[in-house]
Amino acid sequence: MMLCSSWVSVCWLLWSSVYQVAHGYTCPNYCSSRGLCLAQGLCSCPNGWSGPDCSIASCPLGATWSDQVIATDKGHNLAPCSNRGECELDTGTCKCDSGFTGAACERMTCSCNGHGSCKSMAKYALMKDPGRGTIYPYESNWDAHKIYGCVCDPGYTGLCPVGDDPLTGTLIDPNGIQRNEKQRVNCKATSGSFTLTFAGYTTDPILADDSAKTVRDKLVALPSVAAATVTFGGITLTACTAIGNDISIEFTQDFGDLPNMSGNSAGLGHSTPSTLPTLSFSTVTQGTKENLPCSRRGMCDSANGVCMCYPNYFSSDGNGAIGQRGDCGYVSGTVTACPGEIACSGKGTCRGPPTYDCICNEGFTGGDCTERLCPKGRAWFDRPTDAADTAHALVECSNAGECDRAKGECLCLAGFTGAACNRMVCPNECSGHGTCYTMEQLAKRATVNGDTMAFTYGAVPNKKETWEYDMVQGCLCSPGWEGHDCSLRSCPTGDDPMTLRQQNEVQLLVCKGNSGFFSLKFRDAVTPQLPFSVPAASLASALEALMTVGKVSITYSTDTNGVIGSPACNAAGSNTMRIEFLTNFGDLPPLRWILDGALTLTLSVDGVGGSVRGTKEDAVCSNRGICNHLTGVCRCTYGFTSSDGFGGEGDRGDCGYMEPIYLTSAAQQANAL
Known about the structure:
Strand content: 25-35%
Structural class: mainly beta
Distance between the termini: 28 Å
Helix content: under 10%
Oligomer: single chain
Number of domains: 6
Shape: elongated
């Protein structure tokens, strides 16, 4: 008995070598010292390795970015490097395309310019501020942990300072006075502390006996609060009381309808054992002031985040006076016209006094209507707003580009294209050896064993699982090319000459009728119309003329006693056409037909009625060589070379012929047992 203990790899090699010697044969390259040599000189490779000699390293699998579906709406199946990278066969590592990362190139990259964090769709969904409403998860869709985007740090959203429009909400505005947001917190406790959370940020602990000033200081210390006033109800001096104290908070520099505050009361206590400490929240006044870039009275220079105010407008203090806020919320003098060299730049309607604001024509925006809107597409990166796993709302440039306001055109990030940046580019433009298709288009071209299927992807409107049906694109390679970017040449396939007692595919066709025409179809290739009387030799020639068919042997049961040339079809349906595929190997798809006239055809396959299911391999390089994808040529292992598809030497290009030096060896004799 051999005791291996921790010397697993050494023991494996030793045991494999002993096994090979004992059985009188060897495998290619001794299975690279990784696999076990089995009968017929086949290597049984361990996980992570493949090839005739176990020399090819396997790369990690990931849900594909693009692929051809295996059934309707069943896309994004597992593939090496997620179909967005090249597998390094010597190391088993993925060389990812630009814009993709991870061991299997399974997720997007995002640098965020050093001013944000790169988050997955699943993570981003859970980061929603509870004050903005229900948090819906995004977990079950294919892209939940694949598509990543930037969550910007405060002040780095790419926008200019925001503020209130100084001409709206005044005493003479017919729409009424605008107000700041006011919220109320009621704290019933006598000891301990609590925290407040607003717009994603949480305060330091607020003590039950903290003063209004202390509460305000802790609140405005948050990055999400610019300024606020805090008052207590009545003559109360502490944040919390035994019967509950109202803490009123007015946001004086954060405008619009603000998120609700929330808090954590776990640290509070109450002197009365039967009374639980509580912390409750309510909105007293909903904020109605505008919170617009440059207060809608200037243009935003997005390159540096600075407002360029229209004439007579300047930076404000947020309360209608001049200040350092950076918006355009202060107006100097009397305004008598809407912004623009002519009112609203001729691209909108001026509403006149007292607000002098513009209603822009379709396609235009901005305070003076000079800025153009960009096309919208489903967002690549956003969060659910109405239900779990339902995201990707319509936004400008699909959240994958910047809008050029001067032209109304999207400047797409690398890896995206389309008017709204709503298409993912194909890798390397398919290397000139394939066609770039959307998932929807790829599905219509999906094949099973060479036959195009009636699959669809995204045909059901608004199905959340297939939201990207017309956005994600991938390559469909031309014949002779493969790989995620169609950069790899395909190698010939063939039967493994060392596997025994295998059979060619035989299909049996019976045609009933004595007039009309029919065409036969194999793997999407169709013969010309053939008359019902076509003889066996002519039928064979028609099939062999198809690009999908090699050599066939066709015999008719009615061709007997040396008489040939009987028709394929007759009124009794008594002729059986026996079609044997001589150089198409494996379990083949059934023949199909197109009828013209009073004919009926029936087919027997897979062992029914004397038919034969093909059992020969149709393996790359006949399982006896390694494909050089740069040249598309098989490098055959020792003792094997190209065959003719019939067991002899030929120019098929596979490795399906055993050379005579092997045929006369002891190894060949042992393998034949």
